[in-house]
Amino acid sequence: MRETGTPPVAATTTAVPRREAARGESADSAGGHAPHRAGVTTYQGTAGNAAVAHWIQRQETPGSDANAEARKNAVDPTGHGEWSTFRDMMAEAGFPNSVTDAAWQLVLGGLAEQGQLNDEAMSRFTERQAQRDHRASNTWYQELVQLIGDYLEIDRPTMALWSGGIDTSVYARSKGHTPLEATPFGGIIDKMRLTKDWKLKTPMWNVLSKAFVDRARGPVHIFLRAYNPDSVLIAQEVPQLRLVMALHPAVKLIWHPLYTASDGRLMEVTKSLDLVPDASYATRDECVQVLYDYLRLRHDPENAHSERANQEMSDRLAANGNPR
After folding, report:
1. Residue 267: helix, strand or coil by DSSP?
2. How far, in Å, CA of 2 to CA of 47, rounded?
3. 162-171: pLDDT as tens digits
């Protein structure tokens, strides 16, 4: 594995086919039936001899990475307990073996690298976004995006972003929109545990989400159950969308404030503070105002489904000098 700060080694040295080519391959080529390489041999074929040399050097450096499990998995990728599950899901989704092998090695290499980047982010930076940016500088995850970018395309007509728990993503899908977790590759990674330490995996999602947002070409529906200005949605995805909008005028943001009713159903909030199946707004400020007004004025203290959102809103108002 390469050390932090070394130039990225292109995973595409294996001439990985693009999505169109992948769909044209035979089922045997796209599935788990062909023999798969293991260990350093897999990595060598994916990223080359120089990267293997860097990896060996790093293993000889005492204390270079405390995550021994992630290092072990990166050196022996097919020994990871979820390898066969990943391989089979990739085959079912139509990925060729070449992409499956390379993607798996890049994911595991990224997990092994991430511990050091996380430590550096905390020691070198005090500002939250700077820390997030450094954690997301993982070159393995950047290479992964270059490899599977076409598989972040949406099959339904409109992209969805969300904040406020995975139920919000499920709700967006039920309304006919496509969040990252519903893309071919995103859906597979979403089902994988990969590591016990979620801090090693979260930066990969941040890198994938940025690449996902870059592919917006039409309306983007944003579902908000809780507003956090420091969330990935508000701090990273929406600013990235603003850049995309400058190049693609068809991209526009459609905001939906959500409240979980006492029966567990997600509903949308109107300006008159009614709960309805659909209520959308053209700006973030309108959406957040309606959401906060509903939580302040209509939230039922006995409704445990929305208590977390209500508490977060109350804490944020108090921190801004506006106690309820």
Report:
1. strand
2. 10
3. 998 899 999 9
